[in-house]
C-alpha cells in the first residue's frame, strides 16, 4: 500500500494580502495536523478575485516565478509541515502575465511552473484582459508523495486537459478554482455542473480529483460575485467522498491507496483500449 492523504481548503478572501496569506497558512497547518500530505489552496488566494473588472493597476500584483515572495513564503510553509503545495499565483514573465501554479515539494523545493491554458472571458470573469494563454503545456510533478497533476479553474471543464495529465502519470489531479454566480444571469447556479464535470474526469481516467474554491461575496466596480465554495474530493470512480458547504471556511481530507488505484486503473483497460489514431478531430477547432 502507498497511502497518501490529500486536502482541499476554502476561505473568503479579504482585501488585505497579508491577511489572506495568514489565513491560507493556518488552513495548511490545520490540514497537516489532520495528516494531509498534499494541501490545495484556492485559485489566486492571496487577494480578492480582481478579474471582475478591467483595471491596469492590478498588473502590479504579479510576481516572477524565480523571485516570487509568495512562492518563497509557502516554500517555507511546505517545508515546516512536510506537505506538498500546488500553489496558485499571478505570474509576470517579461512583458507577459499568466495565471500560474507552482508545485512546491514537501522539503520546500519549488518545482516546475504551470501556466493556465484555457483563459475565460465573460461578465465577472474577464481573465483575457490580464492573462496570456499558458505556454507550458500540461504538467505533472514527481513529489515526495507521488506523481501529482494540476490545472487551474477554467481548465477543469476540458476533458482533454485531464486526459493528458493522466497520460503523463498523474496519480491525483488538483484544481484550484474561483467560481460562483454569473453577473449576467443571477439565477443560474453552475455548482452541480462544476462538480459533475470534474467527477467525470476522475471516473474517465480513474484518478482522484481535488477541487478548492473560494467563498463569500466580492464586490467589484462593475459587478459582484457570490463564490459558492463546495470544495470537494472525489475518488477514482467519480464519487464525491467529502465536501465543504457553500459558506464555511475550512479543510477536508481524504486518504487514498495510490498503489491500489494504479492496479484498478490498469486492470480496467481505459488506457490500453484508447485509439488515438481516431482522435484527430479534436486537434481542430
Annotate the secondary structure layout.
Elements: E1 3-10, H1 17-33, E2 38-40, H2 69-81, E3 85-93, E4 96-104, E5 110-115, E6 121-122, E7 125-126, E8 139-143, E9 146-150, H3 159-167, E10 172-176, H4 191-205, E11 209-212, E12 215-219, E13 224-228, E14 232-234, E15 240-243, E16 250-257, H5 258-268
Parallel strand pairs: 1-2, 9-10, 10-11
Antiparallel strand pairs: 1-16, 3-4, 4-5, 6-7, 8-9, 11-14, 12-13, 14-15
Radius of gyration: 18 Å
Unreliable residue stretches: none
The spatial strand order of the largest sheet comes to 8-9-10-11-14-15
Q: What order do the helices and strands follow?
A: EHEHEEEEEEEHEHEEEEEEH
Task: Output mean pLDDT.
Answer: 98
* Principal-axis shape: globular
- What is the structural class? alpha+beta
Largest sheet: 6 strands, mixed
Q: Count the strands?
A: 16
Number of helices: 5
First-residue to last-residue Cα separation: 43 Å
Pfam families: CN_hydrolase (PF00795)
Protein name: N-carbamoylputrescine amidase
InterPro entries: Aliph_Amidase/BUP, C-N_Hydrolase, C-N_Hydrolase_sf, N-carbamoylputrescine_amidase
EC number: 3.5.1.53
